[in-house]
Automatic annotation (TrEMBL):
Biological processes per GO annotation: amino acid transport
Keywords recorded for this protein, A-Z: Signal, Transport
PANTHER family in UniProt: AMINO ACID ABC TRANSPORTER PERMEASE, AMINO-ACID ABC TRANSPORTER-BINDING PROTEIN YHDW-RELATED
Gene3D superfamilies: Periplasmic binding protein-like II
Superkingdom, natural source: Bacteria
Name listed for the protein in its UniProt record: Amino acid ABC transporter substrate-binding protein
Signal peptide bounds: 1-25
Domain Solute-binding protein family 3/N-terminal: 37-274
Matching Pfam families: SBP_bac_3
Family label: Belongs to the bacterial solute-binding protein 3 family.
Keyword Signal assigned: yes
InterPro entries in the record: Bact_solute-bind_prot3, SBP_3_CS, Solute-binding_3/MltF_N
Length: 342
């Protein structure tokens, strides 16, 4: 009896210590620093988020989120390697260690967060599922698409959202699945399907790349919540914290009026305690994350605050032409509410 009690006590203590100790704490950050390069998973190609320009240089909102994170780590936007990934391979690539972080139009869902061995962090872009159809096709709402053939990208939430909608409406439809977005767009233009179903921002991006964008219309209804955010592997709280607070800092910089044009002046002149902390005048934020106290200054100087990134790649002056809407700060009626950085 005494022996069993001792063994039970030892097991309980071991379990307590095992539960208290972080799994592989710091392993990702240490590996990135040793390698000298961040490896970032991005889309295989969609305007506004991740697409090579005429010189072959990746551009887009997700791309700049990756570049900014490299700056936070190394103060060098070139120290990032982009890994284009399809919808069906993105999470496997992250879980296997092929990439360090995923910034790839990836919706946060409960099942992804709790079953894949990954962690969804914080939303940086809010979207919703929609449908695009020919402008002269006579379809003005989704309920008029009974019997339609719908192009979809495999491995996305859009598969489930589309199936759920047509089932609840008791409407037949035929899905055609593709590995990549560009394949679905090509099939739509070739007449292989009547509609393309995906998130509205990606529909706008797809339309902007077509020879005659006016030939296509995006139906006004939205059928889901699609909050995009970065994913990291489970078990490394230090890396999770760094990516989380990096994204938050982009919103915080916007809220405090810190831009790429004035950040140097703000460092020298601001008397606001919160802004001084954010900009590393007092060094505790960088120290807590084990990076340079000037990490936010470096990031904003290199890629701008969230507003600058958004407007550069998605805003009304771009070919995509999306107003901020729900992607505005909370002070302007949007959903982005930066957490206190203190």
């Amino acid at each position: 009896m005494l022996k069993r009690t001792i063994l039970a006590t030892v097991a309980a203590v071991a379990t307590w210590f095992g539960a208290s100790a972080p799994a592989q704490a710091g392993a990702t950050l240490d590996a990135i620093k040793a390698r000298g390069t961040l490896v970032c998973g991005i889309h295989t190609g969609i305007a506004g988020f991740a697409l090579p320009d005429a010189r072959g240089t990746w551009q887009g909102l997700d791309v700049d989120m990756c570049r900014g994170l490299a700056v936070a780590l190394f103060n060098d936007a070139s120290k990032v390697r982009f890994q284009p990934l399809s919808s069906s391979t993105r999470f496997t690539a992250l879980n296997s260690g092929e990439i360090d972080v995923l910034f790839r139009t990836s919706t946060h869902t409960m099942m992804r967060d709790v079953t894949l061995g990954l962690r969804a962090i914080t939303a940086y872009f809010y979207d919703g599922h929609g449908f695009m159809v020919k402008a002269n096709g006579g379809v003005t709402k989704a309920s008029e698409m009974g019997g339609a053939t719908i192009c979809l990208v495999s491995g996305t939430t859009n598969e489930l959202v589309t199936a759920d909608y047509f089932r609840t409406q008791n409407l037949p439809f035929t899905p055609i699945l593709f590995e990549r977005t560009d394949q679905a767009i090509a099939a739509l233009q070739a007449g292989r399907c009547d509609s393309f179903g995906t998130d509205a921002s990606q529909l706008a991006a797809a339309r902007s790349s077509m020879p005659t964008p006016a030939d296509w219309t995006i139906l006004p209804e939205r059928f889901s919540k699609e909050p995009y955010g970065p994913y990291v592997r489970r078990g490394d709280d230090e890396w999770f914290d760094l990516v989380r607070w990096y994204v938050n800092a982009l919103f915080e910089a916007e809220e405090r009026g810190v831009t790429s044009a004035n950040v140097e002046q703000m460092v020298k002149q601001t008397t606001n305690p919160d802004t001084r902390r954010l900009l590393g005048v007092t060094p505790e934020l960088g120290q807590a994350l084990k990076i340079s106290p000037a990490w936010v200054v470096n990031v904003v100087r290199a890629v701008g605050n969230y507003s600058e990134i958004y407007e550069r790649h998605m805003g009304p002056k771009t070919s995509i032409g999306l107003a901020r809407g729900v992607n505005e700060l909370w002070t302007k009626g949007g959903l982005h509410y930066p957490l206190p950085m203190r």
